[in-house]
Amino acid sequence: MSRARRIMILAPVFLFLSFPAAYEEPSDVLKLVDAILGETPIEEDLWYLTDQIGGRETGSPANLRSVEWGIERFEEAGVPARREAFPMPASWHEEGTTVEIGGDASFRPLAVAMPFSAPTPAGGLTAPLFSVGHGTAEDFKQAGDKVKDSWILVETRELLDLDGLFLEYAEAAAIDARAFEAGVAGIVYMGSRSHGLLYRHLVSHGYRNKHPMVVIEREEAMRAARLLEKGNRLTLKATIRTNTSAPRESYNVIGEIRGGEKPDEYVVIGAHLDSWDLGTGALDNGCNVALVIDIARQIRRLGLIPKRTIRFVLWNGEEQGIFGSLGYTVSHADELYSHVMASSYDIGSGRITGFFTGGRPEMVKAVEQTLAPVSNLGPFTHVDAPVVGTDNFDFMMQGVGNLVANQESANYGPNYHARSDTYDKVDLKQLKLNSAIAAAVTWGFANMDVTWKRQTAKELEHLIATTDVVEQMKSFGGIWFEWNEGSRAKRK
Q1: pLDDT, average across residues 96-113
Q2: Helix or strand or coil: residue 271?
Q3: Contact 474/468 with Cβ under 8 angstroms?
Q4: Cα angle for residues 379, 167, 188 (degrees, 5° grid)
Q5: What CATH topology corresponds to 91-244?
Q6: Cα 297 to Cα 79: distance, rounded to the nearest angstrom
Q7: Residues whose CB is less than 8 angstroms from the CB of residue 181 and which lie 6 or more positions away in sequence, other chains included
Q8: pLDDT, tens digit (0-9, with 9 covering 90-100), for 166-184
Q9: Cα 457 from Cα 272, distance rounded (Å)
Q10: What is the DSSP-derived secondary structure letter of residue 488?
Q11: For the CA atoms of the chain, what is the radius of gyration?
C-alpha cells in the first residue's frame, strides 16, 4: 500500500483528533497522536529490521547488529540512547535437525528442534515411536511402561488464535513433566500449524532442559499417528545438532527523554528486539519495536517535554527466558521505587483492545484516564489480572505498576515463532493506530498524578497466592524453576 493511500485511510481519525468542534489549541497529547498518525518512518524501520537484518536470536550476529541499529535509530531521532549489558545464563542455537521414520513405513518429515532441546549423539538417536495421543494424564496412564526409552508422539490441535496459543503453552508444560517422569527417550510434538509450517516454542524447563525435543510437520505427524493407530511398528531417528553457550553478556537498548519536572521518576515503554530464527520476527516483535522508536521520535520532533523521564527500551533475551528485562530490574534496583509504570507491547499488530493491568485496580483507573484522548480508537476493555510471558514480568514481581497491551488475535497465533512471521504479515494501518494508543498511554503516565506506590513483598505474596501466576510461570521457559530456587530476583 502506498504512503499516500495510508494517509488517506488514517485521515478521518487524524482530523477528528486535530479539530474539535469548538477549535482550541490541541493539547500535547493530541499533537503527539496527530504526529504518530501522520507520515513517519515506522514502516521503513520495520522493513529494515525484518527484511534487511532478519531473524535475531539473542547473541547472534544479526541480533548484535539490531542492537546497534536500535541505537542509531534513536540517535538519528535526537533521542539519547545507550547499550546496556545484562547476563544471559545460557543461549541456544540449532545448527541442524533431521528426522527419519522407519519400521513398517519409511519417510522423512521436516522437523526443527525446540529451543534448548538437548542434542543427540552425532550418529543420531533411534528408538521406537509411540503415540501418547494428546499427552493427558490418562493417555500416559494407559501407555504405562511402553513409553520408557521411546520417542513419544504428542498430537496437537491446530492453532488458530491467541487462546489456542496460551492453551498450547499450558498443556505442553504438563505433558513435558509427565514424559520426563515416564523416562522417555525424547518428545516429538505434532506441528500445530498446517501445510508443513514449522515453528519454535521454548521448552517448559528452559535452559535446564536435558531431553531431545522436536516439532515435526503436522501432516506427516498425522500420517505417523494413523500408522501407529493401525498397529504398525515405527521407529524414529532424530539427529539434532545444537550450540548452547555458557553464561554470556547481552544487551538491551535504552533511549531516554528526560522529564522536565520529575526527571528522577520513570515511565518505561518497551518491546523486545530479539526473535527466533525461522522467520524474521515481524509480528514477534519487530512491529512493536518500530512502534516504540516512532513514539520517541515524534515526542522529540515536536519538542515535547514530559514531566517524568520516559525510557524507551528495546529488550533482548526475551525469547530465551525474559532475561533482558530481568537484568534491567537488577541493574536499576535502586530506582524501582521511582518507576511509575512499565509497559510491554508484544502481541503483533492486532488492534489494541485494552490492557492487562496486573491485578491492581488503581492501574485500571489510571489507564482509562490516559486513553480518553484516543477513545475513538476503542472501545477498550481492561483485564485486571497478572500476565507472565513477556517483559512486564519482573517489573510486576518487583511491585512496579505494569501494563501489557491486550490485542486482537488477528494473524498472530498461526504465525507465532514460525517461518511465516515476516514483514508482509503486519497490518501496517493497525500498527499506526496502535502506535497512537501507546503514545497516549505513555504520555499520560509520564504526566499524570500518581495515586499508587510500589507494592510490598507482602502484597506480592498475596497476588501470587490469589491468582494463577504460578501456573503461568510453569508454562514459560523455566521461569518457575528460577523463581522457586531463588535465582530470579524477588522483591525484598
Answers
A1: 98
A2: strand
A3: no
A4: 145
A5: Glucose Oxidase; domain 1 (3.50.30)
A6: 7
A7: none
A8: 899 989 999 999 999 999 9
A9: 27
A10: S
A11: 23
How far, in Å, CA of 211 to CA of 179, rounded? 10
CA atoms in the 13 A half-sphere facing the CB of 417: 21
* pLDDT on residue 357: 98
**Residue 5 has what pLDDT?**
37
Q: Where are the beta strands (DSSP E) in 297-438?
A: 308-315, 339-344, 352-356, 402-407
- Identity of residue 381: T
pLDDT in tens, 309-362: 999 999 999 999 999 999 999 999 999 999 999 999 999 999 999 999 999 999
- Of 131, 125, 95, nearest to 185 by C-alpha is 125
Looking at the DSSP assignment, which residues form a beta bridge with residue 266? 309, 339
Question: How is residue 152 annotated by DSSP?
Answer: E
Contact 390, 344 (CB under 8 A): yes
Domain range annotation of the chain: 3-89+247-485, 91-244
- The rounded distance, in Å, linking the Cα atoms of 380 and 378 is 5
CB 133 within 8 A of CB 156: no
Task: Pull the grid cell for residue 234.
Answer: 515405527
Query: How far from 246 is each of 92, 237, 483, CA to CA, in Å?
Result: 9, 28, 20
Contacts of 34 (CB under 8 A, 6+ apart): 14, 17, 18, 26
Nearest to 275 by CA among 353, 174, 218, 348: 348
Of 327, 255, 335, residue with least CA distance to 291 = 255
- Among residues 245, 286, 271, 275, which one has the least CA distance to residue 56? 275
Model confidence pLDDT, tens digit, residues 182-222 = 999 999 999 999 999 999 988 989 999 999 999 999 999 99
Task: Please give the pLDDT value at position 67.
Answer: 98
Distance CA 427, CA 448 (A): 31
Q: Which fold has domain 3-89+247-485?
A: Aminopeptidase (3.40.630)
DSSP of 187-243, one letter per residue? EEEEPSSSTT--B----TTGGG--S-EEEE-HHHHHHHHHHHHTT--EEEEEEEEEE
pLDDT in tens, 427-473: 999 999 999 999 999 999 999 999 999 999 999 999 999 999 999 99
What is d(CA 104, CA 320) in angstroms, rounded to the nearest whole number?
A: 38
Q: Are strands 213-216 and 186-190 parallel, antiparallel or unpaired?
A: parallel
Ranges of beta strands (E only) in 330-392 are: 339-344, 352-356
